[in-house]
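Subject: Sanity check before I submit

Could someone independently write out the structure tokens for this chain? I want to compare against mine line by line before I put it in a report. The sequence has 506 residues.
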Amino acid sequence: MIRLRPFVAALASACVLATSAAVAADDKPAAPQLPSEKPVVTHHHARIDGSEIDYTATAGLLVINGDDGKPVTSMSYVEYTRDGVRDRTHRPLSFVYNGGPGSSTVWLHMGAFGPMVVSTTNASTTPPAPYRLVDNADSLLDATDLVFVDAPGTGYGRAYDKKAVFGIDQDAKTFATFVQRFITMSDRWNSPKFLIGESYGTTRSANLVNVLADHGIDCNGVVLISSALDYKTLLPAPDNDLPYELFLPSMAAVAAYHHALPQPPADLNAFLEEARHFAATDYAAALMQGDRIDAATRARIIAQLHRFTGLSEHYIDLSDLRVTPGHFEKELLRDQRRTIGRLDSRFTGIDRDAESASPDYDPADAALTPVYTALFNTYGRDQLNWKVNENYRTTDYEEVFPNWDFKRSVGGFDGRVLAPEVVDDLRQALTKNPALRVYSANGLYDLATPFFNTEYTLAHMDLDPTLRGHVQFGYYPSGHMIYADPASHAKLSADLRRFIRSLSPA
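---
Independent answer below. Compare away.
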């Protein structure tokens, strides 16, 4: 998941840093003290989707070696396996992770699919501790065994060679090694396999599924939750108008949620379809004209943008028809002295200066992070008996993000691009494995990875016509963390349960 730092701004600054040096040259600590790989095993019971389930939890760390045989990182994980399964050949195994880069997998683990989850106040700040941990009737454990994996530099794992693991391709290679080691030690080579990633985790999945195939490991399915697959579609710039078009339908959804539109829509889905059409046609054509746009067309576009976003025509005019997501988050409820969340725009915040251009913080992030952090530490020690003498890093954006290598070679060019994409990696995987299926889950109120952005990106994979139906979409009235809304959580789990079962042999 994309967490503490505003993702687009952080990516832009990281890319600038990457032009001079993606990673410090000699950042390799000598002879790291490696953790024990002996796991901690506990036994539990749960009621999931109406079924009584006994299960085993295995918590531990794996040390990952580089090509030279030297350790480059350790990675922490928690595995949940259903008891009483004699032949795991037909039992799916799902690898689950969040993103960042620099985020642990506490969010999907303790918010979405683990057997126990945090209890939070929907679309508002949860009162301080003591927080509540509750049984998760919407866990996926009835349909698949689960391995929640923390990325290098997060959780209890540590990065020993940052240059070897902090980067788009380095990360996919590291995760591929983890998967290969894990299915070897757990004897799961012949189990159906799924990748479930959120936010930057979708960047990882699109790359990883292709890398795994090159290692002789085909996956049955890939789940993309709140996707970030082509970064130029997320980075508005003077020479890149595309993101303005792709963010517009999400802004329309958010404005409707907050009753900020001049004419509230009677049918939200129909209204969002209108917003998609306008963004892809009249709005795109107007932006393409640049300074050549005539006064009448400009006035017509401004009026339509007002209709879809609720922002004043004067503000839209001053913004030259181009309102960035950060400015929208500040402007939409400015008259109420409130900002809206970027990760989940149902949340509202209060800035010190109501006249500033952008929000001081993300109220969704501020509302959710303390709950997850406190309860994972409690759950890990008290219920998993996982008592590691290290701090569990819920997020680590001080070490991981500044050292991340966003550059990669694409499209047959020798040069290295700074606004990378992993769309072609996913296309290759779908092409080489025609049985592979992809499920894309999207929150309507997500201003970090907007749903129209994902639709556009996945529609530009250049897939063979026979493969285009292999990508499915789901939409939920929630934000980036779809499961933060209870009804969306239940629907997402039900949709993924069907997806996994449909691709696994009986």
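---
OP: Matches mine. For the report I'm noting this point. The mean pLDDT is 92.
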